[in-house]
Amino acid sequence: MRKNVRTVIVSSDAPGLGTLLQKGVGVRGRGGESVRHFLEREVGLAPEYVEQSVRTIFLNCAPADDIDALTVADGDVLSLSAAMPGLVGIAMGRNTLVSGFRSGISAKPGEVREGDALLTVKMFNLVARDAGPELLGRGVFLKAGQIRVALGENAPDNLPDDDEEVLLQTQ
Q1: Which of 58, 112, 143, 145 sits CB 3.0–4.6 Å from 79 for a disulfide?
Q2: Distance between CA 115 and CA 38 in Å, rounded?
Q3: pLDDT tens per residue, range 42-83
Q4: Where are the domains of the chain?
Q5: 117, 37 in Cβ contact below 8 A?
Q6: pLDDT tier at 1 (50, 70, 90 boundaries)?
């Protein structure tokens, strides 16, 4: 676990928060838990929302279908999107009729690495709009410099040095 992390509070309507969600924010969890469990427990998504609205999931840049069998580990990157349009949406979406054709690039269950984990979670389109505010309200980990860049002149004055990790929360 990380110690001595400064908490920074920003307004939930601060311009630039969507950019942070797209670039990725740090979310703590437990290595070895399933992707589904991580999304529900650590990110705070309702089971119905995961099943019906989060239609495209990438785990470390690989399309993820079986989110019950796939597990997370420290350092993983999890990208979340609602259904995408066109051929890309059909091909990369979770459990579609053609997802079997991309089995060579799909995420596969691997060695389970248990313990504390910090994952980068990226949210796009409707998922960012629907689930981003709650996640940011729970708190996410970022380098202070990332906050400065994304929020610009709206960045809090009390940020530490750019390379220092902080817990960003909205209210």
Answers
A1: 58
A2: 13
A3: 999 999 999 999 999 999 999 999 999 999 999 999 999 999
A4: 6-170
A5: no
A6: low
